[in-house]
Amino acid sequence: MQIKVTPLGAGQDVGKSCILVTIGGKNIMLDCGMHPGYNDERRFPDFRYISKEGNFTGLIDLVIISHFHLDHCGSLPYFTEVLGYDGPMYATHPTKAIMPILLEDYRKISVERRGVEEKDMFSSQQIKDCMMKVTPCALEETIMIEEDFEIRPYYAGHVLGAAMFYIRVGQQSILYTGDYNMTPDRHLGSARCDKLRPDLLITESTYATTIRESKRWRERDMLNQVSECVRNGGKVLIPVFALGRAQELCLLLDAFWERTGLKVPIYFSAGLTEKANLYYKMYISWTNQKIKDTFVKRNVFDFQHIQPFDRAFIDRPGPMVLFATPGMLHGGLSMEVFKKWAPSDKNLVIMPGYCVAGTLGHKVLSNGGKPQIIDMPRDEGGGKLHVRCKIKHLSFSAHADAKGIMTLIKQAISVDPVNVMLVHGERHKMEALKERIKTEFGLPCYDPANGATTYITTFHGVPVQLSTRSATCSRFPGWAVESDP
Ligand SMILES: [Zn+2]
């Protein structure tokens, strides 16, 4: 018996997660994401690989969306409404609720600002139509897709609603992690699953070689920097994405202001963030135990010291702290404010996340935070900007680090033979982790590139079939021409 896996995206890369798995004769698509680094057709997975003629409903038996980040769900409306897939799709309740907000934001930016034609993208209506077809599921609920074909989501931490999915068809099974976090943070718990003993564990590996310093140290560092800046009369800009780190850092600052009695105003840019906080309040059961316990007294997402921001405040004198979107300074309010505040050496910009090459955030971070003159992007008015403010990069990313990945492997797997596959990471780092998994656990480990098919033989008391290629190729014409590493 074999399991066949082909990443269409996230193979030795971060972006457009989309992994095709054939297990027990069922074809499953794990995530259907977009690539944030591209504006052309490379932003979506190459679905022609599955079929050049369409008929995706006949070819794919199930689509699973692990969480609402666009690199995991950003091409779903295109796959269903433009390419016509109409089969079963599952996501957790919060993912289903929050996904359309991010998809609409992504559509708007692509069509209205980046000049992508709507026909190459999807419309607002198509997002709505697509979402209607997604079946929501609860944590640890076993869902029978068909007879002897079941799925079960497990808590993944990472962002609200994120889930790992256990999938079993007949005797074969896999666990797909999506993105996950093995250490709890201020608003979410850590990933957890049963001893599932899957034949194959497909895990993200964003931080394949990193062991992160303690979160407490990072938090203290951030609070020191912020309070020093505002006490000296400076302004602090924290570019964030609307969901995830924004809530985490709002909780951190709100509690600190409460403790220290600081009176300096904290703002967050309205719109997306407000809507996002609403969802965090609504899905309080998905957050960590401490937040659930406090909930009886008050909902911590009703921030005491944080108010909505008005554009007129940009030029206000005196200290303030502002959370503004987007997180990589690539447009919107965060860039607008950056232009105004960056020339003063009194001010501070804290970058709490990863910045993709090509964004202003990446440029700002690239010289280690020293003063510099930056050429502003032409579609943002161009010109030169003298950056004299302090720039601080603090990683608050919610991915498992190398230690976390090894812990999950230990937790999920207890008997041989099982296999591990790495996706959603950088090639050379994955290579290092792969070797470590092989030597420390003695497990076969794979890290296929996009488009490369891996065949994994499983043993369940039946004779081993060395190749089922001809049998499956008739269903996936595109797969026949691909290599078999
Ligand atoms: Zn994610």
From TrEMBL:
Pfam families: Beta-Casp, Lactamase_B_6, RMMBL. The keyword Signal does not apply. Keywords: Hydrolase, Nucleus. It is found in: Nucleus. Its main location: nucleus. GO terms for biological process: snRNA processing. GO terms for cellular component: nucleus. Residues 246-364 form the Beta-Casp domain. GO terms for molecular function: hydrolase activity; RNA endonuclease activity. Residues 15-211 form the Metallo-beta-lactamase domain. The keyword Hydrolase applies. Belongs to the metallo-beta-lactamase superfamily. RNA-metabolizing metallo-beta-lactamase-like family. INTS11 subfamily. This is Integrator complex subunit 11. The lineage of its organism: Eukaryota, Cryptophyceae, Pyrenomonadales, Geminigeraceae, Guillardia.
